[in-house]
UniProtKB/TrEMBL annotation:
Any one GO biological process: DNA replication
Coiled coil: none
Gene Ontology CC, one term: DNA polymerase III complex
Superkingdom, taxonomy of origin: Bacteria
GO molecular function: 3'-5' exonuclease activity; DNA-directed DNA polymerase activity
Listed name of the protein: DNA polymerase III beta sliding clamp central domain-containing protein
Boundaries of every DNA polymerase III beta sliding clamp central domain copy: 14-92
Organism of this sequence: Cryobacterium arcticum
Length: 229
Protein backbone atom coordinates (compact mmCIF):
# COMPACT_ATOMS: atom_id res chain seq x y z
CA UNK A 1 0.00 0.00 0.00
CA UNK A 2 1.39 3.37 -1.03
CA UNK A 3 1.89 5.86 1.79
CA UNK A 4 0.06 9.17 1.39
CA UNK A 5 2.18 11.95 -0.05
CA UNK A 6 3.28 14.56 2.46
CA UNK A 7 2.59 18.09 1.26
CA UNK A 8 4.29 21.26 2.52
CA UNK A 9 3.13 24.87 2.60
CA UNK A 10 5.27 27.84 3.57
CA UNK A 11 5.38 31.62 3.61
CA UNK A 12 8.05 34.19 4.41
CA UNK A 13 7.94 37.33 6.57
CA UNK A 14 10.51 40.07 7.01
CA UNK A 15 11.93 40.62 10.49
CA UNK A 16 9.70 43.55 11.52
CA UNK A 17 6.51 41.86 10.34
CA UNK A 18 7.47 38.59 12.03
CA UNK A 19 7.90 40.37 15.37
CA UNK A 20 4.50 42.05 15.10
CA UNK A 21 2.97 38.78 13.83
CA UNK A 22 4.01 37.03 17.05
CA UNK A 23 3.14 39.84 19.44
CA UNK A 24 -0.27 40.51 17.89
CA UNK A 25 -1.36 37.00 18.87
CA UNK A 26 0.55 36.67 22.15
CA UNK A 27 -1.11 39.80 23.50
CA UNK A 28 -4.62 38.35 23.05
CA UNK A 29 -4.46 34.54 23.19
CA UNK A 30 -5.81 32.68 26.20
CA UNK A 31 -3.56 31.25 28.90
CA UNK A 32 -5.94 28.60 30.20
CA UNK A 33 -5.70 24.94 29.28
CA UNK A 34 -9.38 24.41 28.49
CA UNK A 35 -9.13 25.15 24.78
CA UNK A 36 -5.63 24.46 23.39
CA UNK A 37 -6.49 25.93 20.00
CA UNK A 38 -7.04 29.34 21.67
CA UNK A 39 -3.63 29.29 23.34
CA UNK A 40 -2.04 30.58 20.15
CA UNK A 41 -3.50 32.00 16.96
CA UNK A 42 -5.14 31.16 13.66
CA UNK A 43 -2.98 31.77 10.59
CA UNK A 44 -4.72 32.28 7.25
CA UNK A 45 -2.60 32.47 4.09
CA UNK A 46 -4.01 33.50 0.73
CA UNK A 47 -1.73 34.48 -2.12
CA UNK A 48 0.20 37.59 -1.16
CA UNK A 49 -1.51 38.02 2.21
CA UNK A 50 -1.30 36.35 5.60
CA UNK A 51 -3.48 37.07 8.60
CA UNK A 52 -3.10 36.06 12.24
CA UNK A 53 -6.05 36.10 14.64
CA UNK A 54 -6.12 35.44 18.38
CA UNK A 55 -8.70 35.60 21.15
CA UNK A 56 -9.14 34.88 24.85
CA UNK A 57 -12.95 35.16 24.58
CA UNK A 58 -12.90 38.72 25.99
CA UNK A 59 -11.03 40.32 23.10
CA UNK A 60 -9.98 39.58 19.54
CA UNK A 61 -6.83 40.71 17.73
CA UNK A 62 -6.33 40.30 14.01
CA UNK A 63 -3.53 41.62 11.80
CA UNK A 64 -2.83 41.24 8.09
CA UNK A 65 0.58 41.25 6.41
CA UNK A 66 1.64 41.53 2.79
CA UNK A 67 3.98 38.81 1.56
CA UNK A 68 6.86 39.39 -0.85
CA UNK A 69 6.13 36.15 -2.71
CA UNK A 70 2.85 34.44 -3.44
CA UNK A 71 2.02 31.50 -1.18
CA UNK A 72 -0.50 28.70 -1.59
CA UNK A 73 -3.76 29.27 0.28
CA UNK A 74 -3.86 27.38 3.56
CA UNK A 75 -4.89 27.81 7.18
CA UNK A 76 -3.58 26.40 10.46
CA UNK A 77 -3.37 27.05 14.19
CA UNK A 78 -0.04 28.13 15.65
CA UNK A 79 0.71 27.31 19.32
CA UNK A 80 1.71 29.86 21.94
CA UNK A 81 5.13 28.31 22.56
CA UNK A 82 5.96 28.72 18.86
CA UNK A 83 4.92 32.37 18.98
CA UNK A 84 6.93 32.93 22.16
CA UNK A 85 9.98 31.35 20.54
CA UNK A 86 9.57 33.56 17.46
CA UNK A 87 9.14 36.69 19.56
CA UNK A 88 12.35 35.87 21.44
CA UNK A 89 14.48 34.68 18.52
CA UNK A 90 13.43 36.91 15.62
CA UNK A 91 16.45 39.13 16.42
CA UNK A 92 18.84 36.16 16.72
CA UNK A 93 21.05 37.38 13.87
CA UNK A 94 21.69 40.76 15.47
CA UNK A 95 21.31 44.32 14.24
CA UNK A 96 23.39 44.15 11.06
CA UNK A 97 21.50 44.15 7.74
CA UNK A 98 18.18 43.52 9.48
CA UNK A 99 16.34 44.36 6.27
CA UNK A 100 17.68 41.08 4.86
CA UNK A 101 16.54 38.88 7.75
CA UNK A 102 13.66 36.56 6.95
CA UNK A 103 11.35 34.21 8.85
CA UNK A 104 9.94 31.15 7.08
CA UNK A 105 6.89 29.46 8.60
CA UNK A 106 6.16 26.04 7.10
CA UNK A 107 3.54 23.37 7.74
CA UNK A 108 3.04 19.84 6.49
CA UNK A 109 -0.01 17.70 5.86
CA UNK A 110 1.16 15.55 8.80
CA UNK A 111 0.41 18.41 11.20
CA UNK A 112 4.00 19.54 11.71
CA UNK A 113 5.11 23.16 12.02
CA UNK A 114 8.58 24.65 11.50
CA UNK A 115 9.68 28.25 12.04
CA UNK A 116 13.10 29.26 10.69
CA UNK A 117 14.76 32.60 11.45
CA UNK A 118 17.21 33.20 8.60
CA UNK A 119 20.06 35.65 8.13
CA UNK A 120 18.92 36.19 4.54
CA UNK A 121 16.33 34.80 2.13
CA UNK A 122 17.38 31.41 0.82
CA UNK A 123 17.62 27.79 1.86
CA UNK A 124 21.41 28.13 2.23
CA UNK A 125 21.08 30.85 4.88
CA UNK A 126 22.32 30.32 8.45
CA UNK A 127 19.20 29.79 10.56
CA UNK A 128 17.77 28.82 13.92
CA UNK A 129 14.54 26.83 13.93
CA UNK A 130 11.59 25.77 16.05
CA UNK A 131 9.80 22.50 15.32
CA UNK A 132 6.55 21.24 16.78
CA UNK A 133 2.99 20.14 16.21
CA UNK A 134 0.02 22.12 14.97
CA UNK A 135 -2.68 22.28 17.69
CA UNK A 136 -5.78 20.25 16.94
CA UNK A 137 -9.26 21.69 17.16
CA UNK A 138 -11.49 24.17 15.39
CA UNK A 139 -10.72 27.85 15.90
CA UNK A 140 -13.94 29.83 16.53
CA UNK A 141 -15.14 32.19 13.76
CA UNK A 142 -14.26 35.35 15.70
CA UNK A 143 -13.57 37.38 12.57
CA UNK A 144 -17.33 37.65 12.16
CA UNK A 145 -17.35 39.59 15.44
CA UNK A 146 -14.75 41.98 14.03
CA UNK A 147 -16.80 42.46 10.87
CA UNK A 148 -19.93 43.09 12.89
CA UNK A 149 -18.22 45.67 15.10
CA UNK A 150 -16.68 47.39 12.07
CA UNK A 151 -20.11 48.23 10.66
CA UNK A 152 -21.97 48.67 13.95
CA UNK A 153 -23.41 52.00 15.01
CA UNK A 154 -21.45 54.04 17.50
CA UNK A 155 -22.68 54.07 21.09
CA UNK A 156 -21.92 55.86 24.36
CA UNK A 157 -18.65 54.97 26.04
CA UNK A 158 -18.37 51.95 28.33
CA UNK A 159 -15.80 50.73 30.84
CA UNK A 160 -13.00 48.72 29.23
CA UNK A 161 -9.91 47.23 30.83
CA UNK A 162 -7.06 49.64 30.20
CA UNK A 163 -4.44 46.88 30.04
CA UNK A 164 -6.38 45.33 27.15
CA UNK A 165 -6.29 48.65 25.30
CA UNK A 166 -2.56 48.96 25.96
CA UNK A 167 -1.82 45.43 24.73
CA UNK A 168 -3.68 46.14 21.51
CA UNK A 169 -0.78 48.48 20.77
CA UNK A 170 1.17 45.42 19.61
CA UNK A 171 -0.97 45.54 16.46
CA UNK A 172 0.38 48.96 15.45
CA UNK A 173 3.06 49.43 12.81
CA UNK A 174 3.85 52.87 14.18
CA UNK A 175 3.04 53.83 17.77
CA UNK A 176 2.80 57.51 16.83
CA UNK A 177 -0.28 56.79 14.70
CA UNK A 178 -3.14 55.98 17.09
CA UNK A 179 -5.97 53.66 16.04
CA UNK A 180 -9.51 54.82 15.43
CA UNK A 181 -11.72 53.89 18.39
CA UNK A 182 -15.45 53.25 18.37
CA UNK A 183 -17.68 52.08 21.19
CA UNK A 184 -20.34 50.03 19.44
CA UNK A 185 -24.03 49.52 19.98
CA UNK A 186 -25.29 46.12 21.07
CA UNK A 187 -28.38 44.19 20.04
CA UNK A 188 -28.99 43.72 23.76
CA UNK A 189 -30.25 47.02 25.22
CA UNK A 190 -28.99 45.99 28.66
CA UNK A 191 -25.43 45.34 27.55
CA UNK A 192 -22.97 47.63 25.72
CA UNK A 193 -21.22 46.41 22.61
CA UNK A 194 -17.45 45.93 22.32
CA UNK A 195 -14.87 48.63 21.79
CA UNK A 196 -13.66 48.46 18.18
CA UNK A 197 -10.13 49.53 17.24
CA UNK A 198 -8.96 50.02 13.65
CA UNK A 199 -5.29 50.49 12.75
CA UNK A 200 -4.60 52.16 9.40
CA UNK A 201 -1.64 53.79 7.66
CA UNK A 202 -3.82 56.77 6.79
CA UNK A 203 -7.35 57.83 7.85
CA UNK A 204 -10.06 56.22 5.75
CA UNK A 205 -7.90 53.37 4.47
CA UNK A 206 -8.64 49.68 4.94
CA UNK A 207 -7.34 48.62 8.37
CA UNK A 208 -4.21 46.48 8.42
CA UNK A 209 -5.12 45.39 11.95
CA UNK A 210 -8.24 45.41 14.11
CA UNK A 211 -9.27 44.57 17.65
CA UNK A 212 -12.42 44.32 19.71
CA UNK A 213 -12.58 44.37 23.50
CA UNK A 214 -15.63 43.37 25.46
CA UNK A 215 -16.72 45.99 28.00
CA UNK A 216 -16.66 45.43 31.73
CA UNK A 217 -20.07 44.95 33.31
CA UNK A 218 -20.54 46.40 36.80
CA UNK A 219 -21.31 43.64 39.29
CA UNK A 220 -21.15 45.60 42.52
CA UNK A 221 -21.32 49.25 43.59
CA UNK A 222 -18.04 51.13 43.80
CA UNK A 223 -16.82 51.79 47.32
CA UNK A 224 -13.85 54.07 47.97
CA UNK A 225 -10.91 52.53 49.80
CA UNK A 226 -10.71 53.09 53.54
CA UNK A 227 -8.34 55.78 54.72
CA UNK A 228 -4.82 54.57 55.32
CA UNK A 229 -4.98 51.81 52.65
Amino acid sequence: MTAPKITRNAFTLNRDDAKRFAQAALSACTRDDLTPVLQGGLVTVDGLAVRITATDRYRVHTAAFTLEAKAKAHEFSIPRDALQWLDKNVAFHGRYNTELHRVVIATTSEGKLTISVRLFDGDDSPAVSWNGDIPKGKFPPVLTLIEKARTADAAPTASVRFDYIAKAGTLAKHMEFPPALKFTASENPNKPGPLYMAFTDNPGETPYAEAIIQPMLPTFPFRPAAKGN
